Amino acid sequence: GKALSRRPDMGKAISEEADVAFLTADDPNFEQVASISEEIKAAITNPSVQVILEEDRKQAILQALAMADSQSAVVLAGKGSEKTIKVNGQAMPYESDIEIVKAYIAEEKA
């Protein structure tokens, strides 16, 4: 499908633009998150990019935010405001990337 064909392009973009990349779940449906992540990782040709595999999307986002400093840009690609994640043919409830980031920022300011 469309997502499958984009994986090499994701790896290429990461190679060109990222210092650190968290590879995580984004509607894996019937595929294994680790397999998808490995396909993307295989297309990352820049050896200076730190690649972190974290199957739990919320944990990946929280780790990326915690790692960032005032000079960092954190790019969350894939889910945005979506409130479900497709796993094994089912739309499972998901907090949404936006809500995770809002909660993180609120906690940091508290």
UniProtKB/TrEMBL annotation:
Gene3D superfamilies: Mur ligase, C-terminal domain. It holds the Pfam family Mur_ligase_C. Keywords: Ligase. GO terms for molecular function: acid-amino acid ligase activity. The keyword Glycoprotein does not apply. Residues 5-80 form the Mur ligase C-terminal domain. It comes from the Bacteria. The keyword Ligase applies. This is UDP-N-acetylmuramoylalanyl-D-glutamate--L-lysine ligase.
